[in-house]
Give the backbone structure.
Amino acid sequence: MYILGLSALEHDSAAALVTDQGIVAAIEESKLTRTPGKGGVPYQAIQFCLDRAGIKAKDVEKLAVASCPLPTWVRHAALQSRRYDRHASGALPPGLDDLIDELRRLPPEATDQGPAGPMGRTDPTAPTGRALPLEHHLCHGASAFFASPFDRAAILTLDEHGHSCCGTAALGEGTNIRPLRSTAFPNSIGWLYSQVTALLGFEPHLEEHKTQWLSLEGDGADGLKALFDDVLGRPCGGLPQIDLSYLRPEFTGRGAFAARFYQRLGSESERSFRLTDALARQIAASFHQACARVLVECVEQLFEETGVRNVCLAGGLFINALLVAAIEKAVGLGSVFAQPAAGNAGSAFGSAWLAWHQVLGRPRFRPLSSLDWGPSFATEDIKNVLDNCKARYRWFDTEAQRVEATTEALAQADIVAWHQGATEFGPRALGHRSILASPWAPYIKENLNHYVKHREPFRPFAIAVPEEDCARYFECSRLVRFMASLGWVRPDARVLLKDLALPGDQIRLYAVERGTNPLLWQLLKEWGKRSPAPFLINTSFNLFGEPLVVTPRDAVRSFFCSGIDAMLIDGFFVSKS
Ligand SMILES: [Fe+2]
């Protein structure tokens, strides 16, 4: 059986294909179209999933869509399929339009659910066709719970708004997710996060990660902490309860905050408000601390209500590894599972799993172990691209040679791009589309920022470490396999990482498992023989705010448009010297 899951809200659309073997293909549309945050119908992602499995759209037995309002999506899909030749790029694969038609024929109540309405067609007793519209937050919840190692867990989903619903508390048991309650816009901590991002001068919906990391630059001034504690209030029933008197939800950006908010900041009004760098740092820190407090309280309330001491987290807010780490630290490492592609894209496989487990009652798969579900490329195809670009390269037959060449380059303080195997799903580089460097190379942070990443100095780099070596140097949970949380540097290891550790001895950490990424694991082990520790800086292989590179041509373009010194792509070692 094949179930195709789609995320198709207005941003971050994606497709995922589930079979008896689990997820066999998944990719975000943005990575294929090279457009950050791409929304709408994920045409190219759908085609990739079908091609990867070697099937046609007619072979898809269920189409699970994590998206409301579906009528808009269906209209768009129908329009596209009429406008384009069926085989042209941008059209639905032949046969999938039948499923879209089926969605269109569903009664409005099945496709237009508000937060207080029925929780999607997830009731196994409800009549189901091939096309399943599923409630957005239940799909977020399914993406976390069914990926987790827990048989029973509280579930908390929070995002800006998925068709006006901004969060859901639920209980997961076996193959069933039972919603407890939801909260509606504008009571949205995700939306508030975007407005604070805009207040700080960043791009809302794209640069929330900057607010996240800027928060580590401040210590949270007393007055500001009190303000954000008041704005965020006390949660109820495991969900945040924002004091809306501080907000004007009909507006966005700086205009979203009411005069009362600016007065607490010491300004008469929005117009007289002046943001300095120091104030921005303190606002980010105070807001982050208030968010962390509220989320910990939400989780504690759910633990109390359900009697379960495990929690699964998803929804765009939980892409924020700093908040996940704060929850883990408060309620216990090992009792939290944050789905690593927590935003809307992840609801593509959430919807497929919800259909597979809850609608069809099929047994659970093994817990999530890797996210390498995207496109991979044949050696011959990679060679053709390199030759076409007149790139200079050496070919290495064996893994040992590839590791040796890369280690040698890293020892020369080179910055090395690493393009291996299938593209990882989600926003983070997990050793398939990474940039690697020695943490002990002189001025390495400055070089990475100046010559490659072109980003703010306050944004931290992650360290890749063989998983079995993590405990020696760090305190951490298994979430660092996916970079979904942070680690804490042990006192003995501080001297090794003094330029990369964050306040409170926190560190961005990527634990590399031998079974799921053997080549990178070998590289770290080999590197550890000639270095103070088996650590490498691991950052995403992308430039200028683009999504992670996917194809060899994406990789070559990024390689030659940046100060990356060398690249290992399959067995081809490309260098500029
Ligand atoms: Fe969402």
Remarks:
- The pocket of fe (ii) ion is lined by residues 136, 140, 159, 162, 315-316, 344 (CB under 6 Å).
- The chain is about 35% helix and 20% strand.
- The chain has a mean pLDDT of 89.
